[in-house]
Amino acid sequence: MRPILLALLAWATSLGVAAPLEHSRRQSCANGPTSRNCWGDFSIDDDVTYTWPDTGVTRSYSFDVGLATLAPDGVEKAMMVVNGQYPGPTIEANWGDNIQVEVCNNLPENGTSIHFHGVRHLNTNHADGAISQTECPIAPGDCHTYRFKATQYGSSWYHSHYSLQYGDGLLGPMVIRGPTTANWDIDLGPLLITDHYHESVFDLADEPLTSLIGIPPVAVNGLMNGKNKYLTGTGSRAEFTFTPGKKHLLRLVNTGSEMIFRFAVDQHRMTVVAMDFIPIQPYETDTLLIAIGQRYDVIIEADQSPDIAYWARGVPMTTCFAINLMSADIRAVVRYESDTPVTGDPTSTSWLMLDTCADEDLSNLVPYISHSVGPSSLTENFNAVLLPSQGDNYAVRWRVGGSEPYRPPKNNPVVKQVIDTAAVNLTANFNPIDLTSLAPSSWVYLIVESLAPLPHPLHLHGHDTYVLARGTGPYVELLTSLNLESPPRRDTFNLPQSGYVVLAFQTDNPGSWLLHCHIQWHIHQGFALTLVEGSPSSIEGVYGSGEDAEMRRVCQNWGLSGLEGTD
């Protein structure tokens, strides 16, 4: 990197801001099958924390959220969906594009929102879609538009952040194209893997709340790109086509409610090139563990016989105390392109699919661009416990650090309160952590631990989070070595069964951000924290007059709906 770029980077970092870098003197390099590291005047060597293109292009989408009766596995189910389809339409953009999504709520008795999972939303906290944090729900009959810039690239998904709606289908894939750390020929697009329930998740959600030990509902099936067969013989499989001798990019996303999956394509090895929105040093593997909300971009070479078809498998990890009735049969089909294509079911041989309640080994998850983590300005330790509920009809609720589970009102979001009072005076049911007194770009360490024999895929909005340590048993500071040099960084990370995870992030993105478990039943039971970051004046500046007025309009219409007390 040229000295002037280093100086600009240091200047931007010192101020706690990120800014596009000057690229006018670089030699342009076209992205292609033998140059996937290139991206015009940019490349894989550019750090998305500080730099991105400004294409001037706006990708616009219109989402109608409503009810539909669909049959993903051949069994009909009432679902909540976008534009009448499941999964919803793919949001596609290039690195540096502007994205604009208008969401109109046609649900008769529910509010809604859309969260763009893993998007940093640098200085666009208003587009995060987190109910009670950045907005009130969009009322039935109302519309709201989200606007943000694609400062990152890679694969992800969008989903409702209203109660349990995404478990009933309100989600879809998102692809932001950019450079890659290894070459490939054909982009096969997203592969969404999820558990599936024939009953509404709203009807099932009370089960873990009324059980004294929080036992989750039993999933009846799993889906790949919204399809699978069922025990009754109904349904169909998703299919992918490999071109012999070519390398295929596949974008894996776990959009489930409960399950950690182990993914593999029979007899084909994978090269992993990205985790969440972070490019990584490529590594090879036969199988890949994917927790809820996590994404991996993998490259698979079509180097096997074209004379048979192959299973792509998503196997739930039942050692995580999550049961799926179709654990052995959540599959898609891979066929080779041929003048005489193979028909019928695959006859391929599976890799060894170990049932382990774990995450990918941290030693494999090495960011392509390394960062060093500075000393902590604040360290918070949170213990996640399942305790008897108080003040409602449920048996148990999750508590994370605070005196109450996370169950805030929907009609008075955090940012509205902060802007109105120029302070953080939140009630205990927001489970708030006030970071507003910290200087910009201060380092915050979070230690989350739980002795419960359940994993927790944690997701922090608005940041790529550094995973400094992870282990089983209680966290003991003197016995725990923190990785401060090029640790894995991602937006969704796993708290192990009966274990701990140590996280770090910088206070470089003013707003209110949610940290929560992505198991639907757990966040519904209160497993979440509110992190308020940046001074109140900087948060007000992010919203400005236009977004502030829009937030208040949406909240006013939500108040008029009379649905505040509904789930």
Structure description:
Residues 69-179, 190-314, 429-534 form the Plastocyanin-like domain. This is Multicopper oxidase-domain-containing protein. Residues 1-18 form the signal peptide. It holds the Pfam family Cu-oxidase_3. Keywords: Copper, Glycoprotein, Metal-binding, Oxidoreductase, Repeat, Signal. The chain has 567 residues and is mostly beta strands. The protein contains six helices and 32 strands. The strands form seven sheets. It has a six-stranded mixed beta sheet with strand order 12-11-14-19-16-17, with no helix packed on it. It has a six-stranded mixed beta sheet with strand order 23-22-25-30-27-28. The chain has a five-stranded mixed beta sheet with strand order 13-21-20-15-18, with no helix packed on it. Helix 4 crosses helix 6 (536-561). The radius of gyration is 23 Å and the shape is globular. Residues 1-25 have low confidence and may be disordered.
Label this structure with key terms.
single chain, globular, 11% helix, 34% strand, mainly beta, 567 residues, oxidoreductase, disordered N terminus, 6-stranded mixed β-sheet, metal-binding, signal
Mean pLDDT: 91
The spatial strand order of the largest sheet comes to 12-11-14-19-16-17
* Biggest sheet record: 6 strands, mixed
Assembly state here?
Answer: single chain
Radius of gyration: 23 Å
User: Which parts are unreliable, with pLDDT below 50 for 5 consecutive residues or more?
Assistant: 1-25
Total of DSSP H or I helical runs spanning 4+ residues: 6
- Helix-strand makeup class: mainly beta
Domain Plastocyanin-like: 69-179, 190-314, 429-534
Pfam family, one: Cu-oxidase_3
Protein name: Multicopper oxidase-domain-containing protein
GO molecular function, one term: oxidoreductase activity
